[in-house]
Amino acid sequence: MKNLKRMLCIFLTTALLAGMCIGAVSAFAAKEKPKTVTICSRTEPKYDNSWYKDLTVYQIWCRSFKDSDGDGIGDLEGVYQELDYLKDLGVDCIWFSPIYPSPQKDYGYDIADYYGINPEYGTMETFEKVMKGAHDRGMKVVMDLVINHTSDQHQWFQESRKSKDNPYHDWYFWRDPKNGSYPNNWDSLFEGKAWKYDENLGQYYLHVFAEGQPDLNMDNPEVRNEVKKIMRYWLDKGVDGFREDVISYISKDPGLPDGIPLPAATGIEHYDKGPNLDSYLKEFKQDVYNNYNMFTVGEMPQSKPADALTYGCGKRLDMLISFDQMTADGIVTDYVHVPFSLVRYKRAWRDWQTQLYGKGWNCLYIENHDHARVISRYGSEHYWKESGKTLATSYLMLTGTPFIYQGQEIGMLNTHFNSLDECKDVVTFNNEKTFAKVGVTGQRYLDLVNKTSREHARTPVQWDDSKNAGFTTGTPWFGVNPNYKTINVAAEQKDPDSILNYYKKALKVRKAYPALSKGSYKEYYPASEKIYCYEKDYGDQKALVICSFSKQDIPFVAPTGFDLSKGTLVLQNYPDAPAGSRSCTLRPYECRVYIYNG
Ligand code: GLC
Questions:
Q1: Under a CB-based contact definition with an 8 Å cutoff, are residues 118 and 61 in contact?
Q2: Over the Cα atoms of the chain, what is R_g?
Q3: Closest ligand 1 atom number to CA of residue 148
Q4: pTM of the model
Q5: Considering only CA atoms, which residue is closest to atom 6 of ligand 1?
Q6: Which of 116, 126, 427, 529 has the largest CB neighbor count within 10 A?
Q7: How far apart are CA 217 and CA 222, in angstroms?
Q8: Is the separation of the CB atoms in 213 and 152 below 8 Å?
């Protein structure tokens, strides 16, 4: 059975040439490796950082947030101007996607200097001003830390390519050609094969992501010491934690052996949760995190709840970013698109909610810079407002720390590209080549980009209905979504029924009722493709969360023990909520949250 499943999986990936995005393929390639996991640390944390469980985190992808100087590129001064907006929204923490100097081949996820600020975004003084402004308003600040790879423009890499005896040579994976070709058969997740030849050295370097993102050799203790130095530098400056990029990839199998052939992701089983991941994370925790009042959230693309119990839960990192709930309309990756399945969406949440309860803590999100806009994916653009609110409700009432991505709170939608010339992302261009191999070209590929690409998350935030949506007075670096005349912050601030005002209310409601923010989870009707219904319990408080994902009216019967007429309706997305004691009709994308105090 296992073999059959595996063969089916391999067939599917081969047929679809899935690969590409990070969510790629790994589940198929997952290899059981013996792991030594030491649970207790030698040193204990100096601080109780459990405050991170009460935060709502807002992710800023600075380039598209707000431009203050008219160069068409979002910047830190723009963030500073909107701190009150964020405070008013009800968020208590800002996570900055990378804002370090970078050639922007992967929009900051290719760092050229870990100790600076990208001049396009401002200076270190501007950053410090923003951080102080956030702290003054009671908001924390978290930096994105990309340590799996650097930019090829980083000085360490420039040194490393000078000669084989350069002290930085071993900071990266340089290998001699094998039989006149690549050192192994690994694919890059972002750009062709995982190896790039350097004429000068006569060697290849490893890049699991784009060519401009060479992988750091974390096995070298000097690299780990430098990583710890970078962490301390930002913590000493006053930041409150890190979001750690593809942290599960930092340890590679010794000898870099060939991988099981898989289109576009060959080799992934040799670096996903590699042999030294646990010991490196433990080292960072003991030598750095334990000495600061901070928290960590680590991106682990293929992680399951069991991984969170090993690497998260405060043992190594505090929370993990899983991709499970983000593939309810894709096979392994967003690009291999299938219709949205509510059952798959619910299963992802159920697994994490139940398996971590009382043991760990969840990171809750439905959007970030790596995925198309969620209403366009999982909701309905026709029922924009209703489905935007139902989607918000579906995840904001779960137990964990909620994350909101810029523009999500106003219900930003996917944009439309008339040609690939309007696109910006290295992944879009790599996938073009990958999909061409299976005959998906021209308009068909463009349709796929319009549906699934992460380009959509990166269009400028729509602030008002003035030119360029109030994002810039200059020429925006990336096309503003033409729907900004109706979907924008200013309009939604004025409309009491807007998605924006709903987010504000939902965050308040969540904080007011511990059953919602901290409760245990019990799901009803798990096989329904139309209704998401769960109960949350904390002490003698109960909550019943009901979300319709249907475009039609549908009948709803409350689970046994719940009387709708006796609950307090604390959140809803229609002006009224008629109900009998056990039943009601749910209108398109209707959602309701009832509270019962024992
Ligand atoms: C992470 C980031 C993504 C980036 C990749 C490579 O998944 O979220 O944006 O492209 O890592 O750094």
A1: no
A2: 24
A3: 12
A4: 0.94
A5: 109
A6: 427
A7: 10
A8: yes
